[in-house]
Amino acid sequence: MIDKVLGRILLDNINKLDKYQDLLKNVFKSSITDLDAIEQQHFYKKYLKILYDKDELTILMKEAINMHQQFPQDIISLEYICLIYCEQNILGENFSDIDMTQFYECLLKLNKESEIATVTKAIYLKKSNDLITAREILKDMLVLKPHSIHGWMALSEISMKLYCWEDAEIAAKRILEIKEYKLKDELKYKMELILVEAMSRCNDKHKWETALQIYEQHLKTHTSMQLDLIHARLSILLNQPNAYILLNNLESKHETKSQANILRALYLKQNKQLDEAVNVLDSVLETSETWLFLGIIYWEMAEYNYSLMAFLNGIKADRYNWKCLVYLGHYYREYGNDMERSRKCYQSALQINPNSEEAGIGLSTAYRLLKNQDANIKLLQVLTVQGSGPRWAWLQLGLQYLDQGNAEQAIKAFQHVIRVDPNDSHCWESLADAYFIRGAYTSALKSYQRVLELCPKSLYPMIQLANIKLIIGQYNEAKNDFEHILIYESRYIPALKGLAETCLALAKEYTAKQFLGRANDCLQQAMNSLIVAIKERKDTSCIWKLLGDICYRVAILPEKYSYLKVSSILIKYEDIENIILLKKQDMFSLSIRCYCCALSLSPQSALLWHDLALCYLMQLQYDPSINHKNLASKSLAAAKHAIKLNPSIWIHWNLLGVICMSPYIKNFALAQHAYIMAIDTEINNAIVWCNLGTLYLYTENLYKANEAYSRAQRADPAYINSWIGQALIAEMMHRKEAMDLFRHATQLGYHSQAAIGYTHWVLDMILNSDTKKNSLNICVTENAVFAATDVMTWYIENHPNDCYARNAYGLLLQRQKLYKSAAEQFAVAVCNSINNKKDLVCVNLAHVLIKLKKYNEAIKLCQTVQNINYNSQCHLALALFKAAKYEEAYTTYETTLQFLANTEIEKSYALCAMGAIAYTFQKVNDAKTLLFQCIQIQPPVITGLLAAASLGILHGDINLTTLVLNELQLYENHLEYGYHVVNLSAYFYLIGNDVKKAITILSKAIFTHPSNVKNWIRLLRILLETNVHMFSKCAQKVLFLNKYITSENHANVACALSYSYFMQNLVPANIIAMQKLVFTYPGNIESWAMFIAVFLSRSAIKSHKVDIKWLTMLITSIQKNYESTNLMAKWLNDSKKKLKEISIK
């Protein structure tokens, strides 16, 4: 009764009696059975709390069970039962004789959200070895109650059992971070121990160092076998000096000897003593951990079968050792050739450790290799839901999308990984691959460059960078990249192939630009690269195909460049490798052989059959020595087979059409069908429409041809062949637009038909008198001549034996007064010409030789003409005249006049020439007679009238001069001879002392034609003698009107103007004028002479200082670098003497 009353009093003041816990316990214990039910339940709760605080857990467990039996609906007793069970299990003690199932289930019925009941259930499942379920229960609970200290404790224990060291580390850290709950010392020590061990098991040096710090700061004072083992492990991993001593101490103790042997093996492995490590482990193969360690060592030794047995034994010893499963997955994937079993291993490992990057990557890779895309996507999408998830899952998701060709989604996934880790080179590489697949080559280029920054010697990004540059047309950069790779890997097939492809692309580019020598050099380099590749891999069709392409490209080059140095291995001449020089015809044969080798490896490749057919077709055009009918049949058969293999590609149908149009097939109906089929495949195709137009042109259906060419032009306005086709139609219809069409074609690029067509029209324009009148501006500016010369230069390079082209090219060069080059072209044309055509070229060559003052050669050449005519004999007579063989020249003209002059104009010209020769012999009267006969012929030739007027002026025959000048007034505005008419009229009045009339005539001509500098020069010559001031004004005006034109006449005007300043002694203007003169006409010796003259005049004045030495050196330099007349040379020498005299004074 006393205990009962005392108990009530103490119960009411329990919070103030901390010092009397023992008294409370005894009072409650003795009085608890004497109370009524309600009071007894109340006493029990206080009693259980006192027992827990005093750490009398065994009594607490007994009393809590008693209370539960008396009050089964009370949760306090159940919570204490579960709490004691949890904490004791964590500390390594347990109540094995108590069935905890009834208690946690009962508590969960009473309180579904009971934290301690959930933890107890998880611990009970752990003891039942159902670790996965236990972990899932705890994780679900901790999501709702993240501050559950006992939940994190249990999770750390279970994670250790599952070898999930990172999870255990996280759980232990969370426990130690929670400050609301005061942890018992034993539990705190236990959590610190778990934390240090978990960190020691991770593969992270930073964590090892942190774990060692924790040990030094918190755990060093404690002594336990487990702690010693952890300390030794950390010392070994961090290569601490005391590691060896710690190992020896552990090995000396019986209870730690087994674990110490495992650490000894770790120590040996760290020091690369793998065999010794295996020997040590063989004696302690008791646990799953030991078997795993043994398997890893065997794996590093490449003893994969031994490692397989070790990993299998490891799983047998502990089915939760997920690391063994990961290695088993590696083995079955890489060496066991059992991808399904590998998948199962990875899947099991990932179930045990969902955070394992290695297991996740392995499972995802297995799904990809098994082509199980749905399962892989499902796995990875679950892991990466709402933008979260592990980095490896995003990476694998990107790789899966990449395999599916979904570049957009792959890019997003890889970008997520890079945001997390910007230095992940593998992810940058995968991102670059995704950009590459999408066609975003610039982004791919930058990504691969980033990979190279992170891994400078990585081969894959280097080869990809080169490939991208090849694709986007940066051929020189790509070539440099491939060559750089081959410095390190000289026989790396992708680099050798890439270099060959780049050189081939460069060769095509150079060929289009007509850099044919460079094209040959590139093709030679490509051949050299592929010879190395073919030695390594003769079983690769793409290399043989590239070899065929290179040989084909060389074969279709002009004869001068159509050669290659080839290894004898390709030709099978001999076993020992030699270098053989092959030329055009042999290159075709080698190309066909290479294509056939490629087809033997890939017989179903339509593109290879296409290439073979094209090669046969080109050989038909270039090789006259072959059996054309047989080769045409082969070409046709190959093209048909390409269509059979792949009828949906237009290029095969187009090639079939071209082959059918060849002169050895001439199946125009089949050609038309082929072109129509090609158009059906791809309607907006300029090439096919153009070829169809050419077919209609062959069959003289000009309307349809024009329509087809128009469709081609709409499809691709830059396609040159369609413009050539339209030009040919215009030419056939005698339309002047033909020239414009040919010109436009030459502006788009080079084509032999465009070159020869345009040149024909340019020459026709030059030679045709009507064309001259209507299109004289084009002829004067010479733009057409220059453009035609350029394209004919390329044409001759491609067709060196075309005598017609050589002749046309020579005429163009002659037009530009490039007589030496013209003579070379005519000479080659003469050698290649036959019969009548040769006579024509001989005359053209003779004309140029006369211009080059090679009169004797011209005479010999004219004498070789077999079918003589008026033109050939006039050239012979002119050459004789120039060679001072006047009598022979006169006789030849006389013969030409009597027998070969067919028109009145031809007779006039012959008489005029005879008059000139007669005048040479001082036979003035005979000359007058011949010229009078000449001008009597109607219509008179202008040259005859000009000659007669000149003769009259020279010999004072006023009547003759007046008569002829009256006739010449009709020609004052003639574009070619008007200047001569004005000049003679002015000169006639000058000799009659009528200067004013002469100036009037020249002024009138200048007013009509202000751009004619020759009239200005005549006027300036008169004004220089009569009115210097007016001369200066006129000279300034002519220079202003023609300031954008540079010619010898303008230089003379400028020199004259400077001379006028010099004469007027305008010193400042003098100097400025000289400077402008030299800067404007640096190539004219007269301008330099005027410049020197100014300084010479200044040197005579004492107040002016002139650098005489410098001026003397300038004169010497001018004498060396400029051609000068005798008068100019004498003046320069006199100037040097004058300067020498001044320097002596």
UniProtKB/TrEMBL annotation:
InterPro entries: Ski3/TTC37, TPR-like_helical_dom_sf, TPR_rpt. Keywords: Repeat, TPR repeat. The keyword Metal-binding does not apply. It holds the Pfam family TPR_8. One of its GO terms (biological process) is RNA catabolic process. Coiled coil: none annotated. TPR repeats lie at residues 391-424, 425-458, 686-719. GO terms for cellular component: Ski complex. It comes from the Eukaryota. This is Tetratricopeptide repeat protein 37 isoform X2. It comes from Apis mellifera (Honeybee). The lineage of its organism: Eukaryota, Metazoa, Ecdysozoa, Arthropoda, Hexapoda.
